[in-house]
Amino acid sequence: MIKRLLLGFVALLVLAVIGLFALAWRRTIDPIAPPQANSFATDLVSRGEMLAGAGYCASCHTARADQPYAGGYAMATPFGTLYSSNITPDPDTGIGRWSEAAFVRAMRKGVARDGSHLFPAFPYQHFNLVTDEDLHALYAFLMTRAPVKAATPAPDIPFPLNVRALQAGWKLLFFRDRAFAPDGSKGAEWDRGAYLAEGLSHCSACHSPRNQLGAEKMGDQRYAGAVVDHWYAPALTAANPAPLAWTTAEIETYLRQGGTALHGVAAGSMSQVIHQGLSRLPDSDIHAIAVYVADRMGGDAKRTGNDAALAQAMTRAGVPVNADIDPGAHLYAAACASCHYNRGPMPAAVRPELGLNSALTSPDPSTLIQVILHGMGTDEGLPGLAMPAYAHALNDQEIAQLAAWLRRTQTDEPPWTDLPSKVSALRTPDGGASGQH
């Protein structure tokens, strides 16, 4: 009896494995001779360059500045480390022998030319919304880049999670193969913004928390905010805790310039998104994205409370620091006040008012700690402005005291917990400022 049960179990297991691989099987698409760069129209390539910026392709597929799009960029996940692939037209290590059909399948289905499933760190679940015309232009752009011979490192993911056939099961659970469908009721700008934000720009990939299998949470958790590469991407919903509403005008300025006087400056991965990606989009597309995101956040509807919130923030900013005996106040006076102090009814964009900044009002302190530790370069945030790094000047306890004092005196949000441990974790190289969106 036991032997029969064992044989039956083994038979079921074999059938399950066969069924899984049958489900996962995808045909190999024949290789092609690498197309000549001059076979693509110049205006088509230019449009593809803009679209590559909208999708932040260079941010994820560039590990070395002198080898753009050659891949090898390490991406830490809860399941192990993945490395981005080489998407230059090198025929041996890149996509030089990929036909446009193979490229489109990878973008929309998450399947490589050889039929293997791509891991969902590549956001094909967003790219499947992109139109045929835009994928055609993107293919033309990539196929006209300088080919770079650079093999992609094997993913450092333990067995059995490294078995690509298992991705077919993940897709059954979480992947919805669909085309973009305009809403139609909110205007052409909203529809254009939705197409860009949900498709190539894949905004929810960073701004949504993920479940235990690495899929974006849906429903009211979508766009609810998440930690990505040791930075906090705030909620893009009405739950965003910014004191002043994110109106269409504010979002548009932020996405175009890298910061605003009423919301502070972009840092970390978001700075890359703005300055290395969205900068290639025309103003009309930036405005469209702002229309869409502001609608999601209810920003234009909430703007009536902005005057009172601004007045409260500026009142707090004007309280003399030297009268406060808190150690955090002394640290602020010594290290921060000379650059961040604002006087009057309006803050200056070049002197970010911390009480208005999402880094201080968010439920997670990662972004604030990252900026204090590692500073900001002149190519981040508002171009030309910089903030020094305090990793060597302040210890973990001092940075925790500074962050706690700012949170307590400049916001109405509850205190952060276990700040010294958080600072210690983010001080390490793995928790450093080099993040990807």
Number of strands: 6
Overall pLDDT level: 91
Number of domains: 2
CATH class of the largest domain: Mainly Alpha
Largest beta-sheet characterization = 2 strands, antiparallel
Major sheet: order of its strands?
1-2
Order of helices and strands: HHHEEHHHHHHEEHEEHHHHHHHHHH
Helix content percent band: 40-55%
Radius of gyration: 24 Å
The N- and C-terminal alpha carbons lie at a distance of: 56 Å
Low-pLDDT segments, ≥5 res: 432-437
- Please identify, by name, the CATH architecture of the largest domain: Orthogonal Bundle
Count of helices? 20
> Helices and strands: which structural class?
mainly alpha
What is the overall silhouette? Answer: globular
Proportion of residues in extended strands: under 5%
CATH superfamily of the largest domain: Cytochrome c-like domain
InterPro entries: Cyt_c-like_dom, Cyt_c-like_dom_sf, Cytochrome_c-type_DH, Membr-bd_ADH_cyt_c
Keywords: Cell membrane, Heme, Iron, Membrane, Metal-binding, Repeat, Signal
Domain Cytochrome c: 43-146, 188-297, 323-410
Organism: Dyella ginsengisoli
Quick overview:
This protein has 437 residues and is mainly α. The protein is 44% helix and 4% strand. The chain is built from 20 helices and six strands.
Descriptive overview:
- With 437 residues, the chain is mostly helical.
- The chain has 2 domains: 23-155 and 170-174, no CATH class; 188-431, Cytochrome Bc1 Complex, Chain D, domain 2, CATH 1.10.760.
- The chain has helices at residues 2-24, 42-54, 57-61, 100-109, 124-127, 132-143, 167-174, 188-198, 204-207, 248-257, 268-277, 283-297, 299-302, 306-317, 327-335, 337-340, 358-361, 366-374, 396-410, 419-427, and strands at residues 74-77, 80-83, 226-228, 231-233, 259-260, 264-265.
- Strands 1-2 form a two-stranded antiparallel sheet. A two-stranded antiparallel ribbon has the order 3-4. A two-stranded antiparallel ribbon has the order 5-6.
- Strand 5 and strand 6 form a beta hairpin.
- Helix 10 packs across helix 12 and helix 18 packs across helix 20.
- The longest helix has 23 residues, at 2-24.
- It starts with a helix and ends in a 10-residue tail after the last helix.
- The model is unreliable at 432-437 (pLDDT under 50).
- Residues 412-437 are annotated as: Disordered.
